Amino acid sequence: MTERLAEIYNYRVVEPDLATSGQPDEEDLAAIAAAGFEVIVNLALHDDPRYSLADEAGTVRSLNMKYEHIPVIFTEPTHEDLNAFFAAMVLYRNKRRWVHCAANKRVSTFVGLYLHLVEGHAMDLAFATERSVWQPNPVWAEFKARMLATYPPPRARE
Description:
Layout lengths: L1 H5 L5 E4 L2 E4 L4 H9 L4 E4 L13 H7 L3 E4 L9 H13 L5 E4 L4 H14 L4 H4 L1 H6 L4 H13 L8
Parallel strand pairs: 2-5, 3-4, 3-5
Antiparallel strand pairs: 1-2
Helix pairs in contact: 5-8
């Protein structure tokens, strides 16, 4: 089971109850459920069969997991997208969460912003997954900087 998870594109363990990756397939989703994850949050679009499943929501629900789809256009991430992501992460804070997009780029930046701005992690720790996956392109670097400047400074973790 753990071996199957490690084969998912750009799989990363962020925290014991939070993992991220690129697009899992149906067998990967079954392995994710078997590993005890309770929620799938998908930031990818459903309009390209190269980067999405025919019925991811149905597959996830058939595995007795919750499914949240927050479609983030890769070239146009928005404040609203991030707010919807924060709301989903807070809603399922006490559940094991698996967050994915097509390649773990959108996700690694959104998770970094969540860990820093909502959970209060230091920037270096919050963005460790992002650094292991990619160096954000100009669109994402600007989005990240704008979101860090928009939100109030986080409270330090206790």
